[in-house]
Amino acid sequence: MKKTSYLYVIFAATLWGGIGVFFKILSGLGFSQMQVVAIRVTSAAIALTLYILIKDPSLLKIKLKDCWCFVGTGIISLVFFNWCYFTAIELTSLAVAAVLMYTSPIFVMLFSTILFKEKINLQKIIALIMTFIGCIFVANIFHSSANNFSAIGILVGIGSGIGYALYSIFGRYAIEKGYHSITISEYTFVFAMIGSLPISGLIKSLPMLVNTQAVTSTLGIGVLCCVFPFILYTKGLSNIENSKAAIMATIEPAVATLLSFFLYGEKLLNSKGIGIFLIFISVLLLNLEPKDNKAIKIKYI
């Protein structure tokens, strides 16, 4: 069962890695970054709601007292993460923002250790270090001419990593309350839609969506790269630790880089290739059963 869950997480991260392809198309059509976020979560919410109504309407049932879990996954995580990420890009650079966003496994590991008593072992720490170094190489941070290490930019960038990590945390609480992965994904998108539409200005730009390219890209970024991966990732969380899932999901930038190579001819025989190699090795490391189960104990004051 665990191996299947690993595959769910890896496949989810692979689909997330394709977001950039559709983002480029929508940006080229004149949509702002926040409008693309609103397009993504709104189309995902609509598509998943229609699917649930056809397959099993009972999946829409939740308890009012549990709404905080979905406010957490949808607004505190999904919307907050995107806002921080795009703000960090403006204040620093795309490379710096990407590296700061992928500090998320560190926060997942810390939060999960405190909240869910997950163990930290040497295997996780090595995988985490390799993953972070790999992300630095993938982002090509040391060769970026646009680096601007403003204090606010760094803080907001770290905020994107925290927001990205919080999906695993709030999602775990929803799972423990007995909700299906589809239900969790549904209300994540619904609350994210409620949180993003008022601040995106998308409603005024709706006429821009009435063309084949925009519709195709909306389905791609909202269904293929949002609905499917969130369901798969949440399903994977039910059988493996948050910290492992978070580290494994960092194959996303590696997948995005590979797509850039095949679709846009971007070179791989450089630091990005090294980064991809390190990330994939860290994922393989997490799939190996540790020879000993000794955990590193953390004391809380």
Automatic annotation (TrEMBL):
Domain called EamA: residue spans: 5-138, 152-287
Keyword Magnesium set for record: no
Pfam families linked: EamA
Keywords: Membrane, Transmembrane, Transmembrane helix
InterPro entries: EamA_dom, EmrE-like
Signal peptide interval: none
Any one GO cellular component localisation term in the record: membrane
Residue spans crossing the bilayer: 7-31, 37-54, 66-88, 94-116, 125-143, 149-170, 182-203, 215-233, 245-265, 271-288
UniProt key word Membrane: yes
Similarity annotation: Belongs to the EamA transporter family.
PANTHER family reported for this sequence: ACYL-MALONYL CONDENSING ENZYME-RELATED, MOBA-LIKE NTP TRANSFERASE DOMAIN-CONTAINING PROTEIN
Protein name (database record): DMT family transporter
Organism classification: Bacteria, Bacillati, Bacillota, Clostridia, Eubacteriales
